[in-house]
Each structure stands twice: as C-alpha cells, then as structure tokens.
C-alpha cells in the first residue's frame, strides 16, 4: 500500500443547553444542544505510510511543531479504536493540526480537533479498505467516534444546530451520536446568528472539564440539574421553532449561569468566572434593556463570555463592543464568529 493523505477542517461549537455530567463511557447525563461555529476551527491533515511496529504509531504536529501532550491524548483514543480500524497498527500516522483561532485564546479546541480527527480516520478507512459509507452513516459514525474522544465534539460534525443525547419526544436522537436540526425546522430569526467571543482570560483553566463532569457524580443538585436541562432543551427547541426570542434568551442565560453555579456548589467547589466575566454580563443585560437588541450571553467551562445575537444586528453590536469594551480595554481580545456549515473535506 502506497502512502496516503486525507484532511478535514472541523469547527468548534457553543452549547446553548449544556452537557455537564456523564456516565461511562461518555454517555451524557442529559441531552444538550449547540450552535456549530464557523471561524473557530481545526484544519487537520493525516499522512499514513506503512509501518512494521504493530502498534499505534503517531507523530503529532500542532501548528508545525511536534506536540507530545496532544499526541498522548490522541494515541490513547486511537488505541481504543484498533478493533474498528485494524490498519491503525499497520501504518505510521503523521498528523498535522492547526487551529484558526489563536493558541491560548481561551477557546477549547477539543471539539474541533477531535471531530477533525475522527473525520480523517473514517476517510482513511474508506481509502484503505475500499469500503465506502453512505454520507449519512459516515457523519453518524464520525459523531459517535467524536463523542468517545471528547463528548461535545459529537455535535461539531453537523452544521448550524445539533443536539446530542436522547430527547423524549424525538425518537431519532441518541446518547451515542449527535443529531442535526435542519435549517428549515427553525424560525428564520435564528438561522443567522453571531457569536462574539469576549476573551477575559486566555490562560488554561484551573479545573479541566473532565474533573468538572466527575464532580457531578455526587453533586447535591445533580438530579434536579439533569431534569432542568431536559426541560430547558424542550423549551429552547420550541422557542427556536416559533421565533420566540425572549424564551431563547431566558433559557440560554439560565444554562450558562447554572453551569457555573454547579461548579461553585461542587465538593470541592471552584470558580472559573472572573470579576470581568460578571462585569460583562451586567453590561450585556444593560445594553439589551436600553436598546431592545436581543443580545444574550452564554459561557463555557471558563471565564470567557460568548455574546450571541442575530446577524441583522451585527453593525450596532460591533459598534457597542468597540466603544464599550475594546476601546476601554475591558476585554483582552474579541473573536468574531458566527453559526457555520460544519466540517469540510480538504481536497487531496
Ligand atoms: O466535551 P467536554 O468533555 O469538553 O465537555 C464540554 C462541557 C461544556 O462545554 C461546558 C458544555 C457543552 O455541552 O459543550
């Protein structure tokens, strides 16, 4: 077998109803939903060449340089998939990965990088075995594999809006893979949305998501939380179908604050928000009240604030961001992102 090469770009996503808490192996305690982003993405190329080592053998280059930390994570994941991809022990993999967002920008890259990796794996498998999947099955398996690599990565496989986890009245949903929500299923006011990521702190977070999920196992509010997340997901979907912006804002902000209140009430307790995160929340709510522009915030497992708004208000929002936050140096940096169309294959 000669040398082969495949590549994919895959985006990050921002959860509107959060996945927080799981049971082995990477089964979510509640369903979640996210916007797929456009600008914040990983480009990954994998070169394979025959090897006699009879083990998973990887060189991992991140932004042009060998990176042992990422390599360890990737090898660990690939080793769990040798049964599905036996050729992993017959080839050497040289993986090149680059993010479009600046390194240490505070944006979690596991969703974009792990989804890019699993897409590359499946494309390689098609080339090596000659067995091709139907497009729908290809993406479903990519989502399932991405889930195992990094839960929220399962949702990055699909464009615009995706859920992950069983939802009572949607029988096609699953805990194993994400499900896309078609553009035509959501009201036009939610079809073009922007996400300005306000970077409060670009450093690595003090408590990993993995540790955070584990702290939900014995959390005093766990049962209520998982119930509330289900309720919020149903409410959010109904609001997005009907064009109900007020309910959308209410649910999204509740989810962000609940995620952080769960961290604050874990044992041990921890706080990822910074004083500037709270200042931004206050400013966003003031701006919304004063202008009636439907901006709202969500927050990942970190201090940075994602400002969400319909694209039609882009000019007003950007002007406000510049005068209130950038010029006054309230935030370190802003990444202007928007809802996007999902992964793309890089031409061979
Ligand atoms: O996919 P993980 O294990 O990095 O967890 C992601 C958790 C949140 O980003 C806080 C929420 C989510 O649903 O994306």
Describe this structure in words.
The chain is an alpha+beta fold and 348 residues long. The protein has two domains: 180 residues, Ribosomal Protein S5, domain 2; 151 residues, GHMP kinase, C-terminal domain (Alpha-Beta Plaits, 2-Layer Sandwich). Helix content is 36%, strand content 25%. It contains eight helices and 14 strands. The strands form three sheets. Strands 1, 4, 5, 6, 7, 8, 9 and 14 form an eight-stranded mixed sheet that branches. The protein has a four-stranded antiparallel sheet with strand order 11-12-10-13. A two-stranded antiparallel sheet has the order 2-3. The longest helix is centred in the middle third of the chain and has 21 residues. The chain is globular. The two termini are 17 Å apart. The model has no long low-confidence stretch (mean pLDDT 96). Bound molecules: (3R)-3-hydroxy-3-methyl-5-(phosphonooxy)pentanoic acid.
